[in-house]
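Ticket #4471: structure export looks truncated?
Reporter: QA, pipeline team
Priority: medium

Steps to reproduce: submit the single chain below to the structure queue and open the exported record.
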Amino acid sequence: MNVLGLRLRRVKHAWGRRRWRRTAQLVGMFGLCFAIALGCTPDAEPDPGAPTGNGRISMGTTLTARTLDPADAYETFPGILLYNLGDRLYTYEPGTTNLVPQLATAMPTISDDGLTYTIPLRDDVTLHDGTPFNAEVMAFSIQRFMENGGRPAYLLSDKIVSAEATAEYELTLTLSAPFAAFPALLSFSGVTPVSPEQYEIGAGQFRPDQFVGSGPYKLAAFTSDSIRLDPNPDYWGEVPANQGIDIQIFTSPANLYNTFRTGGLDVAYQTLDPEQVASLEREAASGGWQVIEAGTNVINYMSLNQTIEPLDDVRVRQAIAAMIDRPLINERVFQGQAEPLYSLIPASFDVAEPVFQEAYGDGNFELAEDLLTEAGFSEDNPLTIEVWYPSASTPRSIVANTLKESIETALPGLVTVEVQNTEGATLWENVGRGIYPIILSNWYPDYYDPDTFIQPFLGCENGTPDGCVEGASQANGSFYYSAEANDLIAQQRAEPDPATRQAIMAELQQMMAADVPYVPLWQNKDYVFAQEDVDQVSIEPTQQFLLGKIVRR
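Actual output as written to the record:
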């Protein structure tokens, strides 16, 4: 196979993994049950480990962990666990989005061509099994991440040509192309050192039920319904403020809600129904617990497949953008527990611009009618749009039907909305085949940089004027292709100057609003609940949860 063929094959395989990850997270993060009664009796659960007063923290969640192997873990909850069990070359200063060295001792030295990163490393770190940390260990871990074929492997393998120990405590990484966001990528939870004595390099060689790395906690127990983290007494950095974390995995939001509400847990984190969140907020003062609210970098959006009529007409896509009433969705579906989203780049980034609000507003049905009339639609020739979502997602079901009611009420006889669903794995498997006209979806960033909200949506490595043949936008269901967008993406990826890069990002967002391959919908809020005697519970601006900060008074 020629070089281009190999590259396209890798892109297709990598984006298949992204769809799998999005499916798993969709079920884990948004498996909400709106019809559930708050006062119901919980199903039988294993003992969640009630607070004992011994300095350990009990935590409950409905999220699950398929694996803790950093070369294969690509879901939300394993990422949180690995972030606390391991270290990375770079991390974020607590409470900020400032990238700082962790296992590195300084920010990387970058060659003039932007391809070679030289990173000095700490010389005082020991792994959980006693193995000394050095550049050979880090190079081994990165090589294993790329070569073992795990779900996140492409994050590095698409960018790194080689990882070498050029001195005992000096790592040199060579890239295939300049990438301004590379230091941020090195903070990804899976890019963490593991012991060469416990792990091996080889396709499919994973150890899902163990972790032997360098972080502040050691993995003491790992089962399908409970996880135990013990402090690492030999940790080189700041040791945990608590005596360990006992995590109970619940089978339903109702069981998590009731166990926390009755004092059986110190901390409850993801995922509760909006009604349960609202109830815990209302009763916090009388119930004796804290409500910690934070924004998230998870975006929710609509993909519009421009290869299917009438979505091949940009005026129709623009009309759909004008029909969306985000405040209505937020209040009716999420009870205010979300934020309207007007760009695919979350508002937490300085480069985000509310381009869809400026261009279309919310529920601007007059503009929508004008655009549809110009495109040749009328009550005698009405527009029918078909909206698909994964059947396990209750919120997307309610969002789709809310949109249907809102649009058909405002534009009777002119627009009909047909709501369809199918099983999540089937949906994501067929997205890239161009079967669905419109899809309700979500996106979890891999690293804290706006690039991860641009290239995966607008990039296309092989396209024609009729749309993307293979690449990122094809895998995301829009089939958007623009040579200009590809050039701008490459420019911002290679641009070291933040101001110049921000200007390019602004141009890309304006292009997205004009061409409407996607319609941004909402951005979730994140909630953690903690008993009143528990301190230092917070969600970082980068969405990480630092378990080692939590302490009982």
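Status: closed, not a bug. The export was complete when the record was re-opened. Leaving a note from the reviewer for reference: The longest helix spans residues 3-30.
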